[in-house]
Predict the 3D structure of the following.
Amino acid sequence: MQGSHLLSLAIWVPIVSGLAVLMTGSDRHAGAARVIALVGAILGFLVTIPLYLRFDLNAGGFQFMYIKPWIEAFNVNYHLGIDGIALLMILLNSFTTVLVVIAGWQVIEKRVAQYLASFLFLSGFMNGVFSALDALLFFVFFEATLIPMFVIIGVWGGPNRVYAAFKFFLYTLVGSLLMLVALIYLYTVSGGSFALPVWYELPLPLDAQILIFLAMFAAFAVKVPMWPVHTWLPDAHVEAPTGGSVVLAAIMLKLGGFGFLRLSLPIVPDASHHLAWFVIALSLIAVVYIGLVALVQSDMKKLIAYSSISHMGFVTLGMFVFNSQGIEGAVIQMVSHGFISGALFLCVGVLYDRLHSRQIADYGGVVNRMPVFAALFMLFAMANSGLPGTSGFVGEFMVIMGSVKVNFWYAFAAATTLVFGAAYTLWMYKRVIFGAVANDHVAHLSDINLREFLVLGLLAIAVLWMGIHPAPFADVLHVTVDELIGHVNESKIPVQ
Amino acid sequence: MEFISPLWPAYPELFLLGAVCVILVADLFVADENRIVSYGLTLAALAGTVVVIWANAPVRAVYTFSNMFVGDLMGSVLKLFVCIAVMMVLVYSRPYASLRGMFRGEFFALALFSTLGMFVMISANHLLLLYLGLELMTLSLYAMVALQRDSATATEAAMKYFVLGALASGMLLYGMSMLYGATGTLDIGELATVIGEGGVLGTVLLLGLVFVVAGLGFKLGAVPFHMWIPDVYHGAPTAVTLFVASAPKIAAFAFVIRLLGQALGAEIVMDEWRQMLMVMAVLSLVIGNVTAIVQSNLKRMLAYSTISHMGFVLLGILSGDENGYSAAMFYVLTYVFMTLGAFGMILLLSRAGFEAENLDDFKGLNQRSAWYAFLMLLLMFSMVGIPPTVGFYAKLAVLQALLGLGDVGIALAVIAILFSAVGAFYYLRVVKLMYFDAPEDVAPIAPRADVKVLMSLNGLAMLYFGIVPGPLMALCLYSIQASVTGAY
């Protein structure tokens, strides 16, 4: 059986452009590398647009399916297909890649070709994760993302980059290897199939489900990251170059949330219900405790990293209340967090490129020298605090709505983020942007150039669009989420 | 019933033997500066052997020489890979060996005799023949390790290798004699029949089994019989390490399959050796991976990594079914080519008077040569087992076979996985040195064209078989089915 090639294009266009970029070789041809990378990234984004335009809002199941035998000895197929959730993730990923290539245009000066190629590879691999319907294919792409990210952090990162790169790699490797055992187990009990649609229908006893759930949880919780396995994220973010932070926050974290929706919930629904209290507890700790941790950070990137963890707590909370508002809210929150955290890291990057410091204390009164930047930064800071009218509000509101239905206190604890989020974001904003010009360095700042304006402007449009008119984003989700809820609420424990 | 045994299943061995004799004599008439002639002849002999193997590959097992010798598909496939591996060793080691006075007739003759020993091991259907092949292979290896007479470390390594190897051979022989005492036969097929029928004296059989497994452990280099591996790998000239670490592992795999899978494959004894293998496999994974972390010498690090890889191979074998055996076979083949690449890279970076064997010698390789750094990156990630490299599928196949064992299998799989995550650390350190650090050594890297091409193919093969692992996996499964489990 064959099918649509659109998803294959979304995966392979960035990877092939990445190879083309690598061909340019040394830094003598850095200009050529940049142009090829930009063309590749834009092409990669353009090929995903037909996915949205041709997506059938009313059809359930997976669309744009493509299947071809890959490893026949194991009955593994190159099996692609997306639902509404994956569609949004692919669009977000391809869009962010374009921004990251533009953002690294002048900033990266050494080994430009390798830098840009790494991002293009990463983009292709992540599209692969989002569109894989074969568990082994999913895993292959999931793991492959580690290699470029390891190199990105380690080569172009800050002073402590080696430690951060290793921590990032080993944390995620241990988690995902445990998941591999679960995948092979499922392959065995399903009679030799890695196809996710087959696994969705597979009856499993509760104790097996719980073990599988925990193994998958190890992989996805590290990726999200959930408290208490979040500690790699601040290190990785602080040390990564701006582009690396953006991709990490905007998309790589979503691999974890996406994994829960694609694998955990539908394959082991009873275990998900059984252990929901556990996941919800960890999510609420992330929302409240990590929110407080963010408050005391003196490093801007670290602050945003902790804010990411706190916001991702919302995502996992929304997923494990098992109703449509919760799950839709979680997905919307993932997309919105992709825009906002990406934008915030880019804002910090703008400042860092000029002053080479991420410490809040080194800034003050930036608005006097960079008014345009200050205005955009303000918008993203507000969005991060969840101001209505920005994308940050929509997801959080839906998740809170969803959790009220289950337990008032879940919602209450989650809602504290509206206070803490506003507190740490706006307090940082105030200290960096307002006040008198803090020192000579700040006095010599120049406002953002056209390239930076373009990147931040595009993100600003996205944030506002999603905040004011979220329907285009939410519409693709309804049918998918309803189906998912159907899977989750149907027990798979075999009847004795 | 044929009265005269067919000779054709043994054509590869006969051809190789003839070729070695010719080379041995021809080399006498070649002056030192023309040694390239012997080198060319050796490669030609191996290439010829490949053709002979290809032309004579039997689909069904064919027995000859009074059932002492078997020609089967698994044997042919393994011999084919042995030939390829030995040819790669010769190409990689040529610049290194000629700079160090090792580019001589002995080197080629010993390499070919050792290869012949591997062939005999692979095709033996009789314990004595198995032993003969083993001795032919290892005696040549001892001599090769000691080839650099003036080097104290090489001599010491050869001595250790010889003493421990002889001890292992003794154990093996002792075990075989007990098997003979218990069953009255040394023929692999008959052994399996006699044991399968039951009624064999349990204690003697078990005692023999213990000795045989201990001997096998030595040859594979599994903990607690691993002591020789780091010293030999470290002490031997890198060109020889490359040889010791690669092709003999394929032969050792065949050895284990013939002995455990075929001769002792009956259910009653399988449970016994399975438990021993479990202990050895887990210990190998733990000690290999943990000890490798603290090494600063790349050859030593790779030696410990070999031990951990052998743990994985044992895990595949102890699964005891066709999935397990074929997973182990796939693992051994990928291991051999990963090792060839990694040691080949050490040879490539070494030059006259300088051995690039310390981890620090790889610092900043990316800035010295982005291409070789990338190839080494692929090799290292393949050793970790990260997709899309072939190492991932090797581990996957083994894990998949393990889960067939039920709860014990799951526990073993989890242990294997946790320790391969530990192992990831030291492979990643190599990547870190190459990519994140600044170079200390700035000598230009200009390998010969043949090495360059072969090394590129070797590295890219990790990626190619990572994207298209199907055919090789199917080949392993098919040859195990055809030769061992008899599904065809």
Q: What stands out?
A: Residues 2-485 of chain B form one domain.
